[in-house]
UniProtKB/TrEMBL annotation, chain A:
GO cellular component assignments: plasma membrane
GO biological process: protein localization to plasma membrane
Region (Disordered): 210-232
UniProt cross-references to SUPFAM superfamilies, sorted A to Z: ARM repeat (SSF48371)
Phylogenetic lineage: Eukaryota, Metazoa, Chordata, Craniata, Vertebrata
Protein name as it appears in the record: Protein EFR3 homolog B isoform X2
Automatic annotation (TrEMBL), chain B:
InterPro entries: P-loop_NTPase, Rab, Rab30, Small_GTP-bd, Small_GTPase
GO terms for cellular component: autolysosome membrane; autophagosome membrane; cytoplasmic vesicle; Golgi apparatus
Chief location category: membrane
Encoding gene (name): RAB30
Organism: Geotrypetes seraphini (Gaboon caecilian)
GO process terms (BP): Rab protein signal transduction
CDD domains in alphabetical order: Rab30
Protein name as it appears in the record: Ras-related protein Rab-30
Any Pfam family hit: Ras
Domain of life of the source: Eukaryota
Subcellular location(s) of the protein: Autolysosome membrane; Cytoplasmic vesicle, Autophagosome membrane; Golgi apparatus, cis-Golgi network membrane; Golgi apparatus, trans-Golgi network membrane
Entry's Gene Ontology molecular function annotations: G protein activity; GTP binding; metal ion binding
Membrane-related topology note: Lipid-anchor
Catalytic activity: GTP + H2O = GDP + phosphate + H(+)
Residue spans crossing the bilayer: none
Length: 819, 203
């Protein structure tokens, strides 16, 4: 109508572009765009690109007028024309045109009519998909971001229209992102002011799935895109957004997510939070995924005083996210992550114990629920596990070391803190950290034990300080087990029983590698010692024995060479002796359990060595036991109600595995029977000497072994020699200076020592030194006056003994004597 | 040649506790109606109204925000680009008045430093239930250097006045700025971008 109206005399005076534009509008808006005239306009625009901006301006002027006059038919036609012009003009000149185009879109978006809003959005999306090669200096998308975000939150009364507006909003945001993300000159879409609008709008739609189902397909446009729900669309848009995020932008994009989850308290049911972060982790560029985790961890830190459920939710999300993060993508701040997690764990323990978030001010504003804290702790531990599992091996070792270094060692500050609460706290922290460690070790498949388990890790783990508590002891055994087991064999030994034929276990065995041999050379004594001492604990219960059995079995399978097998047999025989001699007054149950443990293990190892003679001996003993003393067999001991009330003190020799017998059969098959003949003596460490666990009984038994070890003619020496100061003095002189008359014996000893591993020699010497010390202590305690002529070595130490300041004395002495 | 249909464009953002009547104020002003059963706003709402002041067309872009805490993050992101903020409370609700300092802190934190803030006590039709006296509110507004007005969206009291006064104030502010920024700055309405603030160089 307007175009036709001016067609009179003055029509010719109008500029050509205006006439061409007018002509595309039909008389009746129902007729739609005049196609032929539109082609003319397009041709004109292409041939005279300098006129494009004027065409655009004029079109937009008309459109504004039509909007104001509610002539929506013409509005649609104008937009269609604009779209076509845009599509046609892929040239540089598009820049001139875009300005008026965007003005028109803005005009439509300002309208209250949902149809116009959607129309405007659709045009904008079309425009967004055009790739411009020339950057534009003066375009602002602020309004679009604001308006599209607002549309995403539409609360229109009609659910169908609401959905359409929301979807239009999402697509609009997608368009803005596409348009601006690669354009350096654009107002940076990644600025917080934009991200704070875009991200929550997308999340809001992602979160509200309920309307999606009830929606009937729109009658106007049923394109593919129109059919999907706002949720799906929002998800796609979020993925696209994150996929484009560069290193520096990730933070700005993730922060609104965290704030949104906070504000809408979505950490608690956590399903949505997990979905969110799954989307994020899968869509973000893999090299940036560690940033997400870092930010989550930071958020956890910031929330350390929030309710446990919130923290648990965050931690759970971290756990999920860490699982997705590709292993190579873990950033340089691995330890920082673990540090925070462990810190949170300790904080939570404190909260649980004190019942308050702030130890200083005890206002009961927030009641701490123990149960929730526990859940949080479990979640943290789980997260530590899943995070560690996404790390490469060398990182895992690092993490293990790190966690280990955090485990408090009671002996170090034994005198400083004695409060009951402190003790409980320390124990809880130990437990939690060891649990975390266990999580880390599960699924840890190290090739090289030597690098995976450095001394700095094994030493504290095997330290005696962690052995006193039964539960902690079990954890340590479990940790060792899962570290040593590399072929998934451990569950095959989860119950102690006598296996008639080990082939049913279907064991996976690799040949012991060179590294493994080296590892065993270096650390075997430590492991044996740990097993030995663990066996001797009176607080052991069924799971402990199972773990010990598992340990022995997995070592035999994973790390055994001939030497190790011999050592293990020696070790187990020594364990049997523990039960037999009963120097530490173990309970009947403990003793039966040790008998049963050795029986089960010897049965296993005899079959592993596949030596018929060995198997036969073991079987014989077991058969005798079955007849006469079935309470010494695992089938009887490791049941719910073990029958252990039998007398275990006066056993006949037939029910006991004999060292001599075994060494005979093994020696016959080429095993080192010399070595087998010598009984196992646990290697002692400085810590042992310091700790109070070393009883006199221990010392005496060691002494016997030491003495018999040193003398080839065993019978000549009385096993329980009277210890007097003279003998002690002699012994000291033995170890310090050279004595002429003993030279011959020494030569023999040296010869023998050459065969034994260094650790064992050290153990012997150490044991001897310890013996001396304890005997000296005893003597000093009894005789008030010191003996007149102590040797030079002791003089220095002796003065201190009277004051009972043991540490310096005891630490110095063995060093001098042992090495 | 200007094809813009306005001389000035201002962004106004309404903030305040949930249920104080922000949406009703906007509706009353832009559409002239009072929706009785207005539900809680989700996120943000958007309205446009062009008014004429002394022969100049002023387009007001009004962003109505949700008062609910859970939408705080998205609403905050709208403060930044606002030319004016209308801080609303309910005169029949002491709590909404007591929250004002908190809102002022938010403004300080997120809004432009040159933003004009108006304090509005809404629902004066509920005079018998009044909990916050006019004097008290006026004093408070004075200490915070804000304009103060009492309105009723239901009775349409002072609603027009609120927005028109605000528009006038924004115009004079914009003029001052234009003068201060010398003649080089573009004239109102001949801005470069579609967005906002092309007339009053606040930024």
């Amino acid at each position: 109508m307007p175009g036709a109206g001016i067609c009179g005399c003055c029509g010719a005076l109008r500029p050509r572009y205006k006439r061409l534009v007018d002509n595309i509008f039909p008389v009746d808006s129902e007729d739609g765009l005049v196609k032929a005239n539109m082609e003319k306009l397009t041709f004109y625009a292409l041939s005279a690109p300098e006129k494009l901006d004027r065409i655009g301006a004029y079109l937009s002027e008309r459109l504004s007028r039509d909007v104001a006059r509610h002539r929506y038919g013409y509005v649609c036609i104008a937009m269609e024309a604009l779209d076509q012009l845009l599509m046609a003009c892929h040239s540089q000149s598009i820049n001139l045109f875009v300005e008026s185009f965007l003005k028109m879109v803005a005009k439509l978006l300002e309208s209250e009519k949902p149809d116009l809003q959607i129309l405007g959005t659709n045009s904008f999306v079309k425009f967004a998909n055009i790739e411009e090669d020339t950057p534009s200096y003066h375009r602002s998308y602020d309004f679009f971001v604001s308006r599209f975000s607002e549309m995403c939150h539409s609360s229109h009364d009609d659910p169908e229209i609401r959905t359409r507006i929301r979807m239009a909003g999402i697509r609009g945001l997608q368009g803005v992102v596409r348009k601006t993300v690669n354009d350096e000159l654009q107002a940076n879409i990644w600025e917080p002011q934009h991200m704070d609008k875009i991200v929550p709008s997308l999340l809001y739609n992602l979160q509200h799935t309920e309307e999606a189902e009830s929606r009937s397909p729109s009658p106007l446009q049923t394109t593919e895109k129109e059919k999907e729900s706002p949720t799906e669309l929002a998800e796609r848009c979020l993925r696209e957004l994150l996929g484009r995020a560069a290193y520096g932008n990730v933070k700005n994009a993730i922060k609104p997510v965290l704030i949104h989850l906070d504000n809408h308290s979505l950490w608690e049911p956590k399903i949505f939070a997990i979905i969110c972060f799954k989307i994020i982790m899968y869509s973000i560029q893999p090299q940036h995924s560690h940033l997400v985790i870092q930010q989550l961890i930071g958020h956890l830190d910031a929330n350390s005083k929030s309710a446990a459920v919130v923290r648990a939710g965050i931690v759970e999300v971290v756990s999920e996210a860490a699982g997705i993060a590709a292993s190579g993508s873990i950033g340089p701040t691995v330890l920082e992550v673990f540090n925070t997690l462990l810190k949170q764990l300790q904080l939570s323990i404190d909260y649980e114990l004190t019942g308050s978030y702030d130890s200083k001010i005890n206002i009961g504003t927030k009641i701490i629920k123990e149960q929730e804290e526990r859940m949080f702790q479990e979640a943290v531990i789980k997260t530590i596990g899943s995070f560690a599992n996404s790390l490469p091996t060398y990182n895992k070792t690092e993490v293990m070391l790190f966690i280990m270094s955090k485990v408090p060692h009671p002996t170090l500050q034994h005198n400083l803190e004695t409060g009951r609460l402190r003790d409980i706290r320390k124990r809880l922290i130990q437990m939690m950290l060891l649990k975390s460690l266990l999580q880390v070790t599960i699924g840890f498949q190290c090739r090289n034990m030597l690098t995976a388990l450095p001394t700095s890790f094994l030493d504290p783990l095997l330290s005696a300080a962690l052995m006193e508590d039964a539960e902690i002891r079990l954890f340590i055994l479990e940790i060792l087990l899962s570290l040593i087991d590399r072929h998934g064999n451990r569950h095959k030994f989860s119950t102690i029983r006598l296996i008639d034929d080990i082939s049913v276990l279907n064991l996976k065995v690799d040949k012991c590698s060179r590294e493994d041999t080296l590892f065993m050379k270096k650390h075997s004594q430590q492991l044996y010692r740990h097993i030995y001492l663990s066996c001797n604990e009176p607080t052991n219960i069924h799971p402990h024995y199972e773990a010990l059995y598992g340990m022995l079995a997995t070592i035999s399978i994973e790390l055994a060479n001939e030497e190790v097998v011999v050592d293990l047999i020696r070790l187990v025989l020594a364990v049997q002796d523990l039960a037999l001699n009963n120097e530490d007054n173990l309970s009947v149950y403990n003793r039966c359990a040790l008998y049963a443990l050795s029986a089960a293990y010897l049965n296993l190892i005899s079959q592993l060595t596949t030596l018929p003679a060995f198997c036969q001996h073991i079987n014989e003993v077991i058969e005798v036991r079955q007849k006469k003393a079935s309470y010494l067999l695992p089938e009887e001991v490791f049941v719910e109600k073990p029958r252990v009330s039998k007398d275990v003190d006066n056993l006949e020799m037939e029910v006991v595995f004999l060292q001599s017998k075994i060494s005979e059969v093994l020696g016959g098959s080429g095993y080192n029977s010399d070595r087998l003949n010598t009984p196992y003596v646990p290697q002692l460490t400085d810590e042992d000497r310091l700790s109070k666990r070393k009883s006199i009984g221990d010392t005496i038994s060691l002494q016997i072994e030491v003495e018999s070890r040193n003398s080839p003619e065993r019978e000549e020496r009385a096993p329980a020699e009277e210890i007097t100061f003279e003998t002690l003095k002699k012994a000291i002189v033995d170890s310090v200076a050279v004595e002429e008359q003993e030279r011959e014996r020494r030569r023999q000893v040296v010869e023998k020592f050459q065969k034994a591993p260094f650790e064992e020699i050290a153990a012997h010497c150490g044991a001897r030194a310890t013996l001396l010390q304890s005997k000296l202590n005893q003597i000093f305690e009894i005789t008030i006056r010191p003996p007149p002529s102590p040797s030079g070595t002791i003089t220095a130490a002796y003065g201190q003994t009277q004051h009972h300041s043991i540490p310096v004395y005891e630490m110095k002495f063995p060093d001098l004597c042992v090495y | 040649m200007s094809m813009e249909d306005y001389d000035f464009l201002f962004k106004i953002v309404l903030i305040g506790n949930a249920g104080v009547g922000k949406t009703c104020l906007v509706r009353r002003f832009t559409q002239g109606l009072f929706p009785p059963g207005q539900g809680a706003t989700i996120g943000v709402d958007f309205m446009i109204k062009t008014v004429e002041i002394k022969g100049e067309k002023v387009k007001l872009q009004i962003w109505d925000t949700a008062g609910q805490e859970r939408f705080r993050s998205i609403t905050q992101s709208y403060y930044r680009s606002a030319n004016a903020l209308i801080l609303t409370y309910d005169i029949s609700c002491e709590e909404s008045f007591r929250c004002l300092p908190e809102w002022l802190r938010e403004i300080e934190q997120y809004a432009n430093s040159k933003v004009i803030t108006v304090l509005v006590g809404n629902k004066i039709d509920l005079a018998e239930k009044r909990e916050v006296s006019q004097q008290r509110a006026e004093e408070f507004a004075e200490t915070q250097n804000m304009y103060y007005l009492e309105t009723s969206a239901k009775e349409s009291d002072n609603v027009e006045k609120l927005f028109l006064d605000l528009a006038r104030r924004l115009i004079s502010e914009a003029r001052q700025n234009t003068l201060a920024n010398s003649a080089a700055s573009p004239l109102p309405g001949e801005g470069k971008s579609i967005g906002y603030l092309n007339c009053c160089n606040f930024n």
